[in-house]
Specification:
The protein is an alpha/beta fold. Strands 1, 2, 3, 4, 5 and 8 form a six-stranded mixed beta sheet that branches. The protein has a five-stranded mixed beta sheet with strand order 11-10-9-12-13, covered by helices on one side. A two-stranded antiparallel ribbon has the order 6-7. It starts with a strand and ends with a helix. The chain binds beta-D-glucopyranose. Beta-D-glucopyranose (BGC) binds next to α3 and β10.
């Protein structure tokens, strides 16, 4: 039986992704659309690109918008990898005005975590779960017994990416292992989930990761933000 189909959008520093998501199955029900993030990545340009994806996919109903920033009560509070004019912007409300439908605005790593908790690597896991997304920036999602503690910015604990220093996987994993050790000492999680764009290489680097905490690969990898955004939209409708 087909479930509720909602649009999930995931804005990143380099691309904007969108897909129709069957929120009852926890999976995309259309091909993933991806466009380059406009430059400059101002609210006007980014939200117009989102509205365009909405039109192309012929979506209806509520929309979830995952965004790479702290999103507090509907307002973007930071802008690490997007234009600084996002700070203070009610991104969800602005997109809702453009497309005429309700929009839930959520941090991208929080959205990815919602997807993993609802239908992925953390489904049914109790206790403390930390999802980390490694991509243009490092995002984090913190969950207690499946409930999100929003807007943790654990990626801003000092950590340098792989690309800028051309690290090979062993070099990168040595850094990630130090980082996981620090997070472990601070949060004592029951599970780490590794997500984001690196996930497709998990077979190469996963065996090199070390932690006293269980480590799992994100199930939804590059689609987690899109799926989780749609979950956020579905949840908002139920409230
Ligand atoms: C931002 C986070 C975001 C992460 C992943 C970081 O630079 O501060 O809010 O979740 O990038 O996009």
């Amino acid at each position: 039986m087909a479930g509720r189909i909602l649009l999930g959008l995931d804005v990143g520093g380099s691309s904007i992704k969108g897909a129709l998501v069957d929120v009852d199955r926890g999976a995309t029900s259309s091909a993933l659309r991806s466009v380059a993030t406009p430059s400059p990545s101002t609210p006007e340009q980014v939200l117009e690109a989102c509205a365009q994806i909405d039109r192309e996919l012929g979506a209806s109903g509520a929309v979830g918008l995952a965004f790479p920033a702290v999103v507090q009560r509907g307002i973007a509070r930071t802008a690490a990898n997007v234009d600084k004019s996002w700070i203070g912007c009610a991104g969800g409300e602005r997109l809702a005005q453009l497309i005429g439908r309700p929009v839930s605005f959520i941090n991208d790593a929080d959205a990815a975590g919602l997807a993993e908790v609802a239908a992925g690597a953390a489904s049914g896991v109790r206790g403390v779960v930390i999802l980390l997304t490694f991509g243009t920036g490092i995002g984090s999602g913190l969950f207690l017994d499946g409930e999100l503690v929003p807007n943790t910015e654990l990626g801003h604990l000092e950590f340098h990416g792989r690309d800028e220093e051309h690290l090979d996987w062993p070099g990168w994993c040595a850094r990630v292992n130090d980082y996981l050790a620090r997070l472990h000492a601070l949060f004592w999680p029951d599970l780490f989930i590794i997500g984001g764009s690196v996930t497709e290489h998990f077979d190469q680097f996963g065996p090199l990761l070390r932690s006293p905490t269980l480590i799992r690969r994100a199930t939804h990898a590059g689609q987690a933000g899109v799926i989780g955004a749609a979950f956020a939209a579905a949840r908002a409708q139920q409230r």
